[in-house]
């Protein structure tokens, strides 16, 4: 595949204004599916079930089966709509979106078309550099997720060249809310970061509402990024019309969202600058190469032949219910951020570090699990971010906040030094178990037994009599050599400060001739 | 509404994955045209103050509690499949149509 030509990002921005639009799919974590009573794999309790073990007749579109709406999913959708500042429909209906693809057995997806449950909202998004945007929300509508296809055979295993596909319908019928923004202008050079910060904000919102597990690596939160460029209008001239957009599908980590938007800006700019035209199409994001490739041409909405779903009745949320849900809304993320910054006592820089990493929720949950704010911040923005970057993933996918809190407690108790703790994190990230289990399995605990330390110290002092003499002469810095030897003997599993204390103590009392 | 033509019928057939011969397209174009005319007649009387009916009985808000119910066994789920690998349905690969 030929690599797309890219224009330098800054140059692209001089010539064109980027306009982005984002579609985020949120899998709700209700116990059952949207239209059937089968367990919902987007709920952690049922995650990872064997293929086709979470399917009811409705999910397979078997003849005679009829969908019934999950009332909890509707309430969750209303709460989400309210948190997005949306109006809630007085009455709305489901619609059939007809398409033939084996990810849905019915040959249609039940969605909402011209009557979304929530519409016209706005979300405050704060960027890493402190810029604040109001992202306009067009709508949030309810629908069902599709099954999972695994393409087998062919030269690459990807869809092109595949010989057959295996279908698992566990995910078919998982309740989804699709949140669609209006075109977002004014992002300029921050457009890629804005896209990332927006998705991060949506994630914060659904987590604070408790309506989704919001784990991107599991596909609980998925983002499609629309990007178009329009030429900059000459001074005094009216704005140019919007350019043709592409939709990059299923960009499923914060890092990728930023990279994908940036890539599309550079790719489209290179084409337009040469007088070429952008094809309106969906594009696939390739995590490994950081590039996009063409998918199918974008279907006309007409081709989906939407019509009101005849098997379901209108949803008419009472105003009492809406107000009840509004009253129960958690603190908005922006307000929550301001409060947490104060409570944690972080500097602007420290707090931005957390926000930039999309780690606010992780740090908050780690603090809630008992860690100090400083320790929570240190592990998430330090070692865990490093591990995540090395694996091209998000830190949240490596460990849970509870595990980080457990690790911080082990460090606090002196069981682990920072150096050992980093090794433990690596073990936890590699799936070796909880921090305590990794400590036991890898024998990483600090040697806190003074007897063992003293033995090693005495040995080191005895083998370096010149150092011992210097220490006794008051040249305390000479102790470093002994401390180093002891740490080496202990394979790093000792608290250096404690070793130093003991070295000085033993040096003062030890018999030089021993 | 513009009159339905053979090209539109062929497009619809493609969307619905139905293989039609030229004769069938011609035949269906005429039939669909008649159906469209009938719908247009209805549209004449369906003024904006008449709400569209999607259900014959005026009911709303029929919800299910979020309580787990029965599921099929894998064997049951796959029993109607022409082909399976024992846990998943086997379907022929369809190129480039991921939704």
Automatic annotation (TrEMBL), chain A:
This is Aspartyl/glutamyl-tRNA(Asn/Gln) amidotransferase subunit B. It catalyses: L-glutamyl-tRNA(Gln) + L-glutamine + ATP + H2O = L-glutaminyl-tRNA(Gln) + L-glutamate + ADP + phosphate + H(+); L-aspartyl-tRNA(Asn) + L-glutamine + ATP + H2O = L-asparaginyl-tRNA(Asn) + L-glutamate + ADP + phosphate + 2 H(+). Its EC number is 6.3.5.-. It comes from the Bacteria. The keyword Ligase applies. The keyword Metal-binding does not apply. Keywords: ATP-binding, Ligase, Nucleotide-binding, Protein biosynthesis. InterPro entries: Asn/Gln-tRNA_amidoTrfase_suB/E, Asn/Gln-tRNA_Trfase_suB/E_cat, Asn/Gln_amidotransferase, Asn/Gln_tRNA_amidoTrase-B-like, GatB, GatB_Yqey_C_2, Gln-tRNA_amidoTrfase_suB_CS, Gln_synth/guanido_kin_cat_dom. NCBIfam families: gatB, PRK05477.1-2, PRK05477.1-3, PRK05477.1-4. It comes from Agromyces bauzanensis. One of its GO terms (biological process) is glutaminyl-tRNAGln biosynthesis via transamidation. Coiled coil: none annotated. Allows the formation of correctly charged Asn-tRNA(Asn) or Gln-tRNA(Gln) through the transamidation of misacylated Asp-tRNA(Asn) or Glu-tRNA(Gln) in organisms which lack either or both of asparaginyl-tRNA or glutaminyl-tRNA synthetases. The reaction takes place in the presence of glutamine and ATP through an activated phospho-Asp-tRNA(Asn) or phospho-Glu-tRNA(Gln). Residues 362-507 form the Asn/Gln amidotransferase domain. One of its GO terms (molecular function) is ATP binding. Transmembrane segments: none annotated. Pfam families: GatB_N (PF02934), GatB_Yqey (PF02637). Belongs to the GatB/GatE family. GatB subfamily. It is an enzyme of class 6 (ligase). SMART domains: GatB_Yqey (SM00845). Residues 281-300 are annotated as: Disordered. Heterotrimer of A, B and C subunits.
Automatic annotation (TrEMBL), chain B:
Residues 18-45 form a coiled coil. This is Aspartyl/glutamyl-tRNA(Asn/Gln) amidotransferase subunit C. InterPro entries: Asp/Glu-ADT_sf_sub_c, GatC. One of its GO terms (molecular function) is ATP binding. It comes from Agromyces bauzanensis. Its EC number is 6.3.5.-. Belongs to the GatC family. GO terms for biological process: glutaminyl-tRNAGln biosynthesis via transamidation; regulation of translational fidelity; translation. It holds the Pfam family GatC. PANTHER family: GLUTAMYL-TRNA(GLN) AMIDOTRANSFERASE SUBUNIT C, MITOCHONDRIAL. Keywords: ATP-binding, Coiled coil, Ligase, Nucleotide-binding, Protein biosynthesis. The gene is gatC. Gene3D superfamilies: Glu-tRNAGln amidotransferase C subunit, N-terminal domain. It is an enzyme of class 6 (ligase).
């Amino acid at each position: 595949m030929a690599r797309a030509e890219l224009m330098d990002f800054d140059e692209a921005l001089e010539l064109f204004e980027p306009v982005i639009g984002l579609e985020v799919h949120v899998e709700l974590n209700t116990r059952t599916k949207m239209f059937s009573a089968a367990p919902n794999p987007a709920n952690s309790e049922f995650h990872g079930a064997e293929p086709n073990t979470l399917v009811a007749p409705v999910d397979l579109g078997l003849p005679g089966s009829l969908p019934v709406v999950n009332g909890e999913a509707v309430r969750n959708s209303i709460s989400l709509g309210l948190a997005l500042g949306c109006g809630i429909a007085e009455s709305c209906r489901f619609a059939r979106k007809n398409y033939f693809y084996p990810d849905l057995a019915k040959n249609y997806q039940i969605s909402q078309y011209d009557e979304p449950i929530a519409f016209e909202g706005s979300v405050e998004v704060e960027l890493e550099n402190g810029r604040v945007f109001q992202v306009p929300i067009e709508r949030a509508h309810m629908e069902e997720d599709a099954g999972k296809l695994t393409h087998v055979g062919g030269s690459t295993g990807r869809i092109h060249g595949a010989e057959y596909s295996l279908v698992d319908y566990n995910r078919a019928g998982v309740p989804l809310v699709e949140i669609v923004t209006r075109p977002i202008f004014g992002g300029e050079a921050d457009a890629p970061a804005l896209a990332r910060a927006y998705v991060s904000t949506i994630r914060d919102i659904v987590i604070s509402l408790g309506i989704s597990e919001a784990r991107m690596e599991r596909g609980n939160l998925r983002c499609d990024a629309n990007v178009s460029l329009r030429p900059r209008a000459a001074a005094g001239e009216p704005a140019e019309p919007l350019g043709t957009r592409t939709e990059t599908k299923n960009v499923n980590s914060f890092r990728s969202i930023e990279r994908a938007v940036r890539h599309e800006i550079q790719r489209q700019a290179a084409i337009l600058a040469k007088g070429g035209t952008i094809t309106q199409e969906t594009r696939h994001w390739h995590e490994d190469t950081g590039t996009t490739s063409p998918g199918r041409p974008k279907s006309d909405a007409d081709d989906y032949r939407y019509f009101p779903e005849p098997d379901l009745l209108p949803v008419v949320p009472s105003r009492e219910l809406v107000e009840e849900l509004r009253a129960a809304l958690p603190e908005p993320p922006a307000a929550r951020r301001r409060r947490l910054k104060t409570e944690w006592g972080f500097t602007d820089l420290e707090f931005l570090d957390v926000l930039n990493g999309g780690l606010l929720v992780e740090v908050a949950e780690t603090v809630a699990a008992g860690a100090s704010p400083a320790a929570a911040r240190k592990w998430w923005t330090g070692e865990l971010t490093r591990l995540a970057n090395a694996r091209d993933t998000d830190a949240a996918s490596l460990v849970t906040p509870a595990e980080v809190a457990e690790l911080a407690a082990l460090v606090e108790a002196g069981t682990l030094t920072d150096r050992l703790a980093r090794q433990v994190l690596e073990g936890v990230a590699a799936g070796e178990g909880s921090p305590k289990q990794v400590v036991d399995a890898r024998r990483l605990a600090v040697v806190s037994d003074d007897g063992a330390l003293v033995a090693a110290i005495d040995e080191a002092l005895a083998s370096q009599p010149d150092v011992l003499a210097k220490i006794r002469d008051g040249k305390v810095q000479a102790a470093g050599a002994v401390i180093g030897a002891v740490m080496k003997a202990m394979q790093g599993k000792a608290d250096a400060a404690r070793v130093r204390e003991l070295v000085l103590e033993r040096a003062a009392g030890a018999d030089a001739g021993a | 509404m513009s009159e339905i033509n053979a090209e539109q019928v062929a497009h619809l057939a493609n969307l619905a994955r139905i293989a039609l011969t030229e004769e069938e397209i011609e035949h269906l174009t005429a039939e669909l045209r008649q159906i469209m005319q009938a719908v247009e007649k209805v549209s004449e009387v369906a003024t904006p103050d008449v709400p569209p009916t999607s259900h014959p009985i005026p009911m709303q808000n029929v919800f299910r509690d979020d309580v787990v119910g029965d599921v099929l066994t894998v064997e049951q789920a796959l029993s109607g499949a022409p082909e399976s690998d024992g846990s998943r349905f086997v379907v022929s690969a369809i190129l480039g149509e991921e939704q």
